[in-house]
Structures are given as C-alpha cells and as structure tokens.
Amino acid sequence: MKFYIILILISFTFGFLKEVVSNPTPRPFEAIFNFGDSLSDTGNFLASGAILFPVIGKLPYGETFFQHATGRCSDGRLVIDFIAEAYGLPYLQPYLKVTKDHQKIYNGVNFAVAGATALDVEFFIQEGLAKLLWTNDSLNIQLGWFKKLKPSLCTTKQDCDSYFKKSLFVVGEIGGNDYNYAAFAGNISDLQATVPLVVEEITKTITELIAEGAVELLVPGNLPIGCSAVYLTLFRSKNIEDYDKNGCLKAFNGFAKYHNKQLNLALETLRQKNPHARIIYANYFGAANRFFHAPRHYGFTNGASRACCGGGGPYNFNNSARCGHSNSKACADPTTYANWDGIHLTEAAYRHIAKGLIEGPFTNPPLNPSLFKIA
C-alpha cells in the first residue's frame, strides 16, 4: 500500500480560444506573475530536473495544442495560459528556464512548480511525509525567486510601483498538494487542522507581494477534489450516501469548501488592511462544479470524472498504468473529457474555468475587462 501511495504521489499535482474577439478596452495588464503548483506550472518542474524522465515531459502531455510536451500537466493549455491570451500577453515562461537562458521577461514569468506546497518542507518532515514530496520548491521558495528577479525588472521604487501597478499577480492555486500528500498517505483526520496553516502561508505571501509593489492579485481557491478521478478511485465507497448527485465524494468536496471559506475570510481581512490593493478571489470550485453537474452541456460527452488518459479502472485511473506510461493510452478526443490524467484537467476544462473567471461570475471582485474574449 505504501508503494502504491508513493507512486500516486509521483503522478499528481503536479482553454481554447478558437477565435478571439477584439475588445476596444485598453490592455489592463502589461505583465503577469504566477505562483502555484501543477495547475499552473508551465515548465519549472521539468526544468528543475527533479525526475530524470518525468511523464509530463513526453507525449501525450501537450498533444492537443502544443503538439509536444511542455511541462504542463495537461493535454494543452492551462487556466494561466488562457488568462495570458485574454489580456493579449505571451504565455508565461517558467522562471527556471528564463533565468538559465537569460530571456527578457518584461511581460512576466511563472514561478509555479508541479507538486509544490504552500507550507515549507519542514512541516512535512515533522509529519513524516518529507520523502513523499515531489519538490521542495514551496510557495516561500517561489516568493524568494520573485524577490531575486525583481532588480532585473525595475530599479527605483518609482519604476517598480509603475510597473507592478500594471501587473497581475496570480497566487495559486496553491495548498492542494499540502492536503493531497496527507490524504494519499492516509492522514485524513489531520486535514482540517492543516487549513489554517496553509491559509496563513498564502496570506503571508500576498502581504509580502503587496509590500513589493503588487496592486492587483488574483487568488484561486481549491477545486472540487471529491470529483477528481484519483480521489474517486483511492477512496471509492460502497455506501451510496457518500456521493452527491454528481457522483462526487461529499466529504472531500466539503473539505475543499471549508478551505475556500477560510481563504475567503482571510482575504477579506487582507482587503481591510490593504485598501489600495485589489485582492480578487477566484472561485475555481464554482467554475469547475458546473461541468461536473452538467458535463454534456459543456461538451464533455465522456463525462467529467473519468480520465481521458490512463490504464483502466472505473475512472480510468490505474496507478500501475499511469498516463504517459507504456501500458496506458490517451483517449481519441480530449475535448470530450474534463479530466486528463486522473488528477489534472484537460485543456477544454481549463478553458471553461478561465472563461468563468474572466467573463464572470467566478471572481470577486471581478477581474478587469480583458482585451480578448475566450471563444
């Protein structure tokens, strides 16, 4: 069982603009800076060399849009990619790549790392989970990268204030892995006690970014993890009462809602302390829950909980045949699935989430109008 859990951890946490419609609104952002985990990593984990031959470094990952693997834990674009497109900005390059290649990064950079946690490694050492961590590049490490990079972006306080006033800072989704590590290791009873620590770390990072000059910050909450193929497989129950009308596990979705509620309360406190900043909550749960409730309405004719890429089982998540391995295969049309590899979502699903954030109603307060609309 322990071996099974470790293998699962090696595979986890870690839309499309067919046409864009011009909007006369001036570009509200000149740059985006992103922090998080595999839901928004555009290649940092791959660039870190943390695993010699990670499955996310080869097809079918990236097959839908890029036609090659990019280090994104999906078949194509992520929410952060659609946000960049909507505001007329290039896709965010991973920090570890741009610093190595000395690329110009005026339009922003991505600090997110697949498998990253909100809490530092010391917490997981104390919990006996350190050996299961996919990466040590926690939120605090990512914040350190930003501070290290800042002098190359602007020099004087006036320049920095002017530049960051026109920048969007996306802090998350982060924290999901803090709970995943514990849950997959069987420490379910400890999950709720971890929430205040995770939320505190997120709010601490937001506070520091505001001190560095950030004015506009987007802070995503947790997804409905009870609808995820990995949770549905690992915690499969014979008791029908454990499932909601969408076929999702009530307890885990309830936990995700609890995390989101605590995060929202903390963000409201931050708003009161920083009235000059716009701190926006991104309701990932609500945006995603729509297609779990009515998958066919969103084009997911093969459902929202069954993985497109996998090796069998009720939800096509089989740890002995994970996506990208020789004994698994990807579906013919990922656009008909919401779940990509059992843990992460498809480009099509991320597109719907991004559309819900940018066009509403899943951000509070609303994001600034985008330069383009997601078709």
Automatic annotation (TrEMBL):
InterPro entries: GDSL (IPR001087), SGNH_hydro_sf (IPR036514), SGNH_plant_lipase-like (IPR035669). The keyword Transport does not apply. It holds the Pfam family Lipase_GDSL. SUPFAM superfamilies: SGNH hydrolase. Residues 1-22 form the signal peptide. GO terms for molecular function: hydrolase activity, acting on ester bonds. Keywords: Glycoprotein, Hydrolase, Signal. Belongs to the 'GDSL' lipolytic enzyme family. This is GDSL esterase/lipase At5g45910-like. The lineage of its organism: Eukaryota, Viridiplantae, Streptophyta, Embryophyta, Tracheophyta. The gene is LOC101497643.
